[in-house]
Amino acid sequence: MWTAVALAAAVVVLFLYANWTARRLDRLHSRVDAAAAALHAQLLLRAEAALTLAESGALENASAERLRRVAEPALAAHGLGHDREIVENTLSRCLAAAVDTATDLSRQQRSRAASAPVDATVEAAARASMARRFHNDAVRDALVVRRRRIVRWLHLAGHAPQPSYFEIDDAPLEKPGVATPAAPYD
Amino acid sequence: MRVGLVSPYPWDVPGGVVAHVRDLAETLIGLGHDVSVITPVDDEDVELPSWVTRAGRSVPVPFNGSVSRLVFGPLSATRVRRWLHDGEFDVLHVHSPETLSLSLLALMNARGPIVATFHAANPRSRVLALLQSPLQVQIEKISGRIAVSPAARKTIVEHLGGDAVVVPNGVHVNRYADAEPLPGWPGDGGTIGFVGRIDEPRKGLAVLLEAMPYLWKTWPELRLLVAGPGELDEPVDERVVLLGQVDEDVKARVYRSIDVFVAPNIGGESFGIILLEAMAAATPVVASDLDAFRRVLEAPDGARAGLVATVGDAESLAHACGSLLSSPERRATLRRVGRSVVERYDWSVVAREVMRVYETAIAASVGRVMEEPEPVTPPIGPGEQ
User: Fold this and answer.
1) Cα distance between residue A185 and residue A182, in whole Å
2) How far is B66 from chain A (nearest CA, A)?
3) Interface pTM (ipTM) of the complex?
């Protein structure tokens, strides 16, 4: 008798816990989806800023052309798979070089007008980098729960695809003291 | 933007986190945003700005060598839920949610775009280790995490997993730069300054008091101006002036009333806001050789905005102070470097970075801030890892 009661109680507790975990996981998946959408949008904005920079005349022809060539596929990219990582990584590298030369050029010419597309690119890259971090945090939180035994045994994740990290090199573009043409304290 | 800020500590007890929340709120309001702060308030009679909501009183509980102030209970929970409901915030920003405080209570009761700032940097936090599993359920509701320093970020990475963006503490540069020195200071004999709790060993006043006799050999009329609450066990020399606890305005004036500011802290510092305040006031700095301090003192071009002294070493501290007292040129150089360092910590700059976090977090979350239909706590569960 008592064994049956204890067993029934255990089943009820397990059911409650599984139900609660499933809802928790559902929320985590929603968070990953929202964060992925935000990251996708920010990466597009970054590619757009890069293209504007390439067409602004702030770069000499060769590097402008190179930047255009890597920015265009990034503008057409979708999904956050490995292919996208390669495309965005190439853009990151090209942007770092482009921002450096553009900043040097605008410094030599002492013009602030030429630095506007550079500033816009630096800002867009910083936002994309932040969106990527928030996305990867969401992925991590979801994976921690997905790896639990109760989730695996009872298939609580259902058909939701396994979220994956998005890894690219997106070190900040702004070199300290370089973004503004004139040093403020001389 | 409608922003809801949660302070974990009582509004009427001075402290770094409370000052941060207040300054951030004021700056965002100045930028035209709609800000509401909910906070514990210990004194029922204290007057509050119109944008501050009371969440009740805090209960001091000794823990882990210091005093935690807990705010829990049905009354606080009801107030938090009503505040969340009436606020209709675009983003909720909680501070130090890892403490068992109002911030955690708000986190438990909210959903939507949530940003959290982590202020602490303690590599071996027993609290975090102990609470990691139940805390994770609440922490995973946060869309964007901020650490106030690389050290605080390291603590998050090690204890909670995941990452955080570093947005430093801010300082109202002009409030310090424009402050008037207190009447009669710094005087002709030279003055050294200290700001912080005088009876908290890790703030290091004892080391500075030990260093003074070395300096008195060369500068017999040198005075030490001390601002900060607390009691000392032993009487001090008459050249040491204790102001006790001072308000924000007087504190700014203290920094302007001294020739050299000394931060003799012996550890446990995550950031070093006092150094920024001194630099904003254009006062040369001598600081303990702590990681956090060294980082704050470094200028973009690699120059250093202050001298560092061996941690806990009175002689080294006296030596550094002496080299500044004897050289007006060196003091002038440090003042100039200090101004260039502190500029990027001005609240106008820092608040822009915080807004960037808000916008990214809003884009990365579902819906707007709402109160939870039911707080997210596990039912009686196996607590399986």
Assistant:
1) 9
2) 31
3) 0.85
Say yes or no: B162 contacts chain A, CB-CB below 8 A: yes
Looking at the predicted structure, is the pLDDT value of residue A179 above 60?
Answer: no
User: Whole-number mean pLDDT of chain A?
Assistant: 83
Domains of chain B: 2-170+346-371 (3.40.50.2000), 173-344 (3.40.50.2000)
Which residues of B fall within a CB distance of 8 Å from A170?
none
pTM value is: 0.84
Give the pair of three-digit tokens for residue A135.
């996305």
Residue type, B10: P
Cβ pair B379:A13 closer than 8 A? yes
What confidence tens digit (pLDDT) does each residue in A119-134 have? 888 889 999 999 999 9
The closest CB to that of B165, out of A17, A133, A140, belongs to: A133
Is residue B379 less than 8 Å (CB to CB) from chain A?
yes
- Chain A residues whose CB is inside 8 A of the B161 CB are 140, 144
- A133 contacts chain B (CB < 8 A): yes
The per-residue pLDDT for B73 is 64
Please provide residue B171's backbone torsions phi and psi, each rounded to the nearest 5 degrees.
-145, 140
Residues of B in contact with A134 (CB under 8 A): 143-144, 360-361, 364
Amino acid at site B80: V
Determine whether the interchain pair A34/B365 forms a contact, defined as Cβ–Cβ distance below 8 Å: yes
Q: How far is B178 from chain A (nearest CA, A)?
A: 19
Lateral strand order in the sheet of B260-263: B240-242, B223-227, B191-195, B260-263, B285-288, B306-309
How many C-beta atoms lie closer than 10 Å to residue B18's C-beta?
Answer: 20
Q: Which letter, b or e, does each residue of A153-172 get, where b requires 16 or more Cβ atoms within 10 Å of its Cβ?
A: eeebbeebeebeebebebee
What is the least distance, in Å, from the CA of B76 to any CA of chain A?
25
Please name the member of A24, A134, A136 whose beta carbon is closest to the beta carbon of B360: A134
- What is the structure's pLDDT at B350? 93
Q: What is the mean pLDDT of residues B3-28?
A: 89
**Contact check, Cβ <8 Å, B360/A185:** no
DSSP B155-219: HHHHHT-S--EE----B-HHHHHTPPPPTT-S-TT-EEEEES-TT-GGG-HHHHHHHHHHHHHH-
Distance in angstroms (rounded) separating the CA atoms of residues B57 and A86: 54
CB atoms A150 and B301 under 8 Å: no
Which amino acid makes up residue A110? R
Q: Can you tell me the distance from the alpha carbon of B101 to that of B104, in angstroms, rounded to the nearest whole number?
A: 5
Structure tokens at B244: 């006790």
- Cα–Cα separations (whole angstroms), residue A71 to A22, A38, A125: 41, 19, 13
